[in-house]
């Protein structure tokens, strides 16, 4: 388990979502681009042309490689595309939350937290 | 409003599985309630974004603001940041999203740098966030309005208010969308993350307790069998002596 000192550096939210979700969350001021030459963004806009490998790569980057991310937000319908990765993600940091999108309302059946609840109660 | 679960005791006696599950169910109740709140804010956000696009297209003809990735300022700096603190420090204010006093319990907060700087300086835990992102200044940057203030050899300082990416005269629905987003980011999302962290901790505790109980049951059964065997042997011995 990582120490509290390590977690202090986890100061950004990251988002993997469709255009409206990302635009909305960036309006709240969570967007961050690191200085060049890296210029790493903490968001990925996913559209119909975005392939699953790109989403997986962003998920990997936000959850494993970058140590400055505290919370990762991902649209539930996009999480469905990498469900195996999302459901097997067990690290405490960054926290992972599935959020609804414009065209795909929140579905409790797919929520990884509620899946865990069902497992705990032996369903 | 759902009732606030009492914080778990941090005593030496281990909590029973029933205690843990009772707390878990209360957390689950809060989680589902917060999920409903998040969905409501999201719907409002998406509706306001659609309204702002509509009004911009009417006002500016075919070349209206799309309010999308093309307008993002790629020099953006986070105006709201995550703060992770151990839940033990929040013992004075036990809430639905505080941990149970163990080392693994954490609380997520999202604060603007202004708030975080004040609370660090004062140490008085000031948490009132300013909803208007336009008034925030970043830790790393001087006030964006002062055009004459420039760091040596750097690009001009971008405005810290994302609304300005979309022009000076932004439609009212876009400002409403921003309010929804701020509420989600500052309030609902960190609480959901904290609840999730605590639920994970309780799941682990329940599994450990179940394992312990299972081991205890096996040991008790073994002891029972041994006792029965001893009684049988003793009985056989008594019969042999009687003969």
From TrEMBL, chain A:
GO cellular component, one term: fungal-type vacuole membrane
Role this protein plays: Subunit of the V1 complex of vacuolar(H+)-ATPase (V-ATPase), a multisubunit enzyme composed of a peripheral complex (V1) that hydrolyzes ATP and a membrane integral complex (V0) that translocates protons. V-ATPase is responsible for acidifying and maintaining the pH of intracellular compartments.
Molecular function terms from GO: proton-transporting ATPase activity, rotational mechanism
Name assigned to this protein: V-type proton ATPase subunit F
Keyword Iron: no
Annotated compartments: Vacuole membrane
PANTHER family: V-TYPE PROTON ATPASE SUBUNIT F, VACUOLAR ATP SYNTHASE SUBUNIT F
Keyword flag Transferase: no
Subunit structure: V-ATPase is a heteromultimeric enzyme made up of two complexes: the ATP-hydrolytic V1 complex and the proton translocation V0 complex.
Chief location of this protein within or outside the cell: membrane
Species whose genome carries this gene: Schizothecium vesticola
Family membership: Belongs to the V-ATPase F subunit family.
Membrane topology annotation: Peripheral membrane protein
Keywords: Hydrogen ion transport, Ion transport, Membrane, Transport, Vacuole
InterPro entries: ATPase_V1-cplx_f_g_su, ATPase_V1-cplx_fsu_euk, ATPase_V1_fsu_sf
Automatic annotation (TrEMBL), chain B:
A Pfam family assignment: Vma22_CCDC115
Record's protein name: Vacuolar ATPase assembly protein VMA22
Molecular function GO labels: unfolded protein binding
Alphabetical list of PANTHER family matching this protein: COILED-COIL DOMAIN-CONTAINING PROTEIN 115
Gene Ontology terms: biological process: vacuolar proton-transporting V-type ATPase complex assembly
Chain positions covered by the region annotation Disordered: 80-161
Biased composition (Low complexity): 105-115
Organism: Schizothecium vesticola
Gene Ontology cellular-component terms listed: Vma12-Vma22 assembly complex
């Amino acid at each position: 388990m990582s120490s509290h000192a390590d977690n202090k550096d986890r100061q950004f939210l990251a988002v993997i979502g469709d255009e409206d979700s990302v635009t909305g969350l960036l309006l709240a001021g969570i967007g961050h681009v690191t200085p060049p030459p890296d210029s790493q963004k903490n968001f990925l806009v996913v559209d119909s042309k975005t392939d699953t490998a790109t989403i997986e790569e962003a998920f990997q980057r936000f959850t494993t490689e970058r140590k400055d991310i505290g919370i990762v937000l991902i649209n539930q319908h996009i999480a469905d595309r990498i469900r195996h990765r999302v459901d097997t993600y067990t690290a405490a940091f960054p926290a992972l939350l599935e959020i609804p999108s414009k065209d795909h309302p929140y579905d409790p059946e797919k929520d990884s937290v509620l899946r865990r609840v069902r497992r705990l109660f032996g369903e | 409003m759902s009732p606030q679960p009492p914080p778990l005791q941090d005593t030496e006696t281990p909590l029973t599985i029933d205690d843990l599950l009772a707390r878990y169910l209360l957390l689950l109740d809060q989680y589902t309630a917060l999920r409903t709140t998040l969905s409501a804010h999201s719907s409002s956000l998406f509706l306001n974004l659609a309204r702002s696009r509509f009004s911009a297209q009417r006002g500016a003809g075919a070349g209206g603001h799309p309010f999308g990735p093309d307008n993002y300022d790629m020099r953006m700096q986070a105006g709201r940041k995550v703060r992770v603190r151990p839940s033990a420090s929040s013992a004075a204010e036990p809430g639905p999203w505080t941990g149970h006093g163990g080392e693994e319990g954490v609380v997520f907060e999202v604060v603007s740098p202004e708030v975080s700087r004040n609370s660090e300086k004062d140490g008085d835990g000031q948490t009132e966030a300013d909803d208007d992102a336009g008034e925030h200044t970043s830790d790393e940057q001087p006030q964006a309005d002062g055009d004459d203030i420039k760091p040596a050899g750097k690009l001009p300082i971008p405005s810290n208010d994302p609304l300005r990416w979309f022009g000076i005269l932004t439609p009212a629905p876009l400002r409403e969308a921003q309010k929804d987003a701020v509420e989600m980011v500052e309030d609902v999302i960190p609480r959901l993350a904290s609840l999730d962290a605590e639920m994970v901790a309780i799941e682990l505790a329940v599994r450990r307790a179940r394992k312990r109980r299972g081991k205890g049951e096996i040991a008790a059964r073994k002891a029972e069998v041994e006792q029965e065997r001893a009684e049988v042997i003793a009985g056989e011995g008594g019969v042999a002596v009687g003969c």
